[in-house]
Amino acid sequence: MMDAREVANRVKALQGSIAKSEPADIISQIETMKKEVVPTEEMLRVGHHPFPPAWPSFSVHFQTTKAGLLMGKLRQNANKDIARAATEVVVKWKKCVEQEKAAKKGKASASPVPKPASPAPKPAGNKKKFEGDPEKRKFQDDGVDVKRTGSPTRDNCIGLIYNGLAYRSTEPVDSVLQRAIEVEHAAFKAFHGESKEYKEKIRSLFQNLKVKSNADLGKGVMSGEIIAEKFVRMSSQELMSAEMRKQNALLEEENMKKAQIPIAEKSMSESLECGKCKKRMVAYSQAQTRSADEPMTTFCEYLATA
């Protein structure tokens, strides 16, 4: 359970995300507070009722967090996903407070000496290392709810990135999910919504994360060495492992050598034009000098004399 200082820090971080208008970050932080904050009656009464003198510094400390007041305002947010997440938090917190009040009332009637109610149990979170088969790991099997944005397409993309990051990883479920949400949000922002480029990029990132020889890519994203904004902007070359880039360079060098064939093996073209004499006596050949998914390179030799 978070203490008052931790709650205050969470509130400040959430206020910062609100100021920057980052919906994904706002929702993510609301979800964290929903899981980890166990409220008291005083916490939700912030700004509405005075604190009783029988509750000393603990009540005052929660008063400074303004967590209840902030969640109340977010329920009216124009973004329906933020409003929904905040509403869920308020409903849960109110339920906790009602349980707390009932516990106090029950103890008061049982004994003339008032005793503080036992704190509500901490909401379950999954911070444990994954212990199953990491090569078969998927969000469905991990019991992860990827419905975070209100859009089926975006939620599916979060699930796809989760599967890529979780592949051959033992990182906790919560950690993998948080990174997957960050990556999807960065891609959504970089490629202007659910565009064709956005979907293609998500698929490309997933495919590169699933390459066994490219394990460092996923580790870099999970550690924070490769931040989400950088990850979604990396080229196909940058996403490759160092070993794959080396192999491609050797293949390109070898293909370039093979492309240097005698003129007798070259074909004549009537469509290519000499840049100097403007005549069409041009010999050409083609060779695959780069990886298989790249177009062939055309080599031209102008035979006409000026």
UniProtKB/TrEMBL annotation:
Location of the TFIIS central domain: 153-267
Record field: compositional bias (Basic and acidic residues): 128-148
Ranges where the TFIIS-type domain occurs: 270-306
Record's keyword annotation contains Transport: no
Keywords from the named record: Metal-binding, Nucleus, Zinc, Zinc-finger
Record has S-adenosyl-L-methionine as a keyword: no
Pfam families xref list: Med26, TFIIS_M, Zn_ribbon_TFIIS
InterPro entries: TF_IIS-typ, TFIIS/LEDGF_dom_sf, TFIIS_cen_dom, TFIIS_cen_dom_sf, TFIIS_N, Znf_TFIIS
Compositional bias (Pro residues): 113-122
UniProt region (Disordered), positions on chain: 102-150
Domain of life: Eukaryota
Coiled-coil annotated spans: none
Annotated PANTHER family: IP08861P-RELATED, TRANSCRIPTION FACTOR S-II ZINC FINGER DOMAIN-CONTAINING PROTEIN
Protein's recorded name: Transcription elongation factor S-II
Species whose genome carries this gene: Apiospora phragmitis
